[in-house]
Design a protein that fits this description.
Length: 240
């Protein structure tokens, strides 16, 4: 039987993490489409003429001819193109400011503050592009961001090509585990809370120590009920 002293030492070695999805978990609505439109209207308004083509890419995704990662790449290229970092960065910062001012759920702000006050390390894990998710996360007090990353082209322009995997579904779990390894954190030495609204994140819910189905859609609500996960509802019902 372990002594109280040894148990106390082990508890001090455990690092507490609170990992949050972003879209519709922390935010009221999605951010990817609004970001594309926001950036397009400021960098290349003429690309609005290409918007109907993005409807075709959505149909191709719905028919499972292309995957979610390819959908994101194609729509970015159509609506934003290949901006240089010095042109894109001010747009990203203005977009993040607008999102934080208008698109963050009150319940999410409160829970982030609670987790922070309890000493938990705040991590955002999102399928959104890190190029703008990181700017939003910084303004909300997150310590780390795990997101879908992009590769620059040979001239250093910010293009849509995804670096590695799209941070979605099982890919998100893989990326969180890879992040833990890079940070030198063993899974047994961390206690993880995970918050997400979507059933695609169920693998991460099941892997975490405390799973919160947050603003869940119907499929996740059913999975959460069967698995015994706590359900949190932060949505404004009038908006919903």
């Amino acid at each position: 039987m372990r002594s109280d002293a040894s148990m106390s030492v082990r508890q001090t070695l455990i690092q507490a993490l609170a990992i949050y999805d972003m879209d519709r978990t922390v935010t009221r609505g999605p951010t990817y489409g609004p970001f594309l439109w926001f950036a397009m209207t400021r960098l290349a308004p003429w690309r609005a003429l290409l918007a109907p083509i993005s409807l075709l890419t959505t149909i191709l995704y719905g028919l499972r001819i292309i995957d979610r990662g390819r959908l994101k790449e194609w729509n970015y290229r159509l609506l934003i193109g290949r901006p240089r970092p010095e042109r894109l960065e001010p747009v990203v910062q203005r977009f993040a400011e607008r999102q934080v001012a208008t698109n963050i759920l009150t319940g999410a702000r409160a829970r982030l503050a609670e987790d922070k006050a309890a000493g938990r390390r705040l991590v955002m894990a999102t399928a959104s592009y890190g190029l703008y998710a990181a700017a939003i996360a910084k303004r909300l007090g997150f310590d780390d961001v795990i997101a879908t990353e992009t590769l620059p082209d040979s001239e250093g322009r910010i293009v849509a090509r995804i670096s590695g995997a799209n941070c979605y579904g099982l890919g998100k779990l893989d990326m969180i585990e890879a992040w833990l390894q890079r940070e030198g954190l063993e899974r047994a030495a961390v206690h993880i809370r995970f918050y997400s609204d979507h059933v695609s994140d169920a693998p991460v819910h099941a892997w975490s120590d405390e799973a919160f189905a947050t603003n869940p859609h119907n499929r996740l609500a059913r999975v959460a009920r069967d698995a015994g996960w706590e359900v949190l509802e932060w949505r404004d019902r009038r908006r919903a």
